[in-house]
Amino acid sequence: MNQQDEYTLDKARVRASFDRAARSYDAAAVLQKEVRSRMLERLDYTRLAPRRILDAGTGTGHAAHALAERYKDSHVVALDIALGMLRIGAGADSWWRRLFPGRRSAVCADIESLPLQSASMDLVWSNLAIQWCNDLDLAFGEMARVLRPEGLLMFSTFGPDTLKELREASAADPEHVHVSRFIDMHDIGDALVRAGFSAPVMDVEHFVLTYDDVLGVMRDLKAIGARNAAHGRPRGLEGKGFLARLTERYERFRDQGKLPATFEVVYGHAWKTETAATTLPDGASVIKLHRK
Hints:
By secondary structure, the protein is of the alpha/beta class. The protein has 9 helices and 9 strands. The protein has a single domain, classed as Rossmann fold, CATH 3.40.50.150. Helices cover 33% and strands 25% of the residues.
């Protein structure tokens, strides 16, 4: 497990931030919607008929809905760390009410500790959620555990170029962390292999959203619940002096009258192998072979 440092996320703050943002999330989650659409298109190239699906980090449940519509015989488990998100997804006018009873479940839990039976899922899906995990090995290990042999993991997350303009501008306060740490695509692929996935396929896209001012960037991040949850974050409100310095530094990126906010989106998919390793207390491993 990763040792705690200034970038380690405070999970209680993550949960509270997404709870507060539940009602504003759908209106502001433009990028999340676009990435979800592109991930769904990628499923067209897989021969898959899953009976049980986990949407890990479901938010308000739109991907879970789309997956249930695509795979009519499936049972979808929509899991999120924030109960507020699940409540919005299960509202009176939501897609949950339109599915047949028994075809969906909502679970409030952390991706790094899935309260699900081992080898119980055929597809694990996660759209822009695992960047909120502190230990990627632990998260992928849990996803591998709940997948059946030959099950598919499909996910997206943010790479190191994400919010690079805000990261540079926030260096006006070098004593604190203002932007989360994001993991490189190659390191993500290595973590998949360590978790027992075979032949992971990874690729990257860059998206640039534009704003009139830096406050617009921060308002959008707040609206989707993406508040600074790092242990090294400032405690309490920053003064007007910091905001002025932040604004001045961010203005250097203005192009054609707009301020950019870059997001590097890493896509990945991999299949769970037929072999699964069990670690013993002394660190040795037993390899179990799953035979058809």
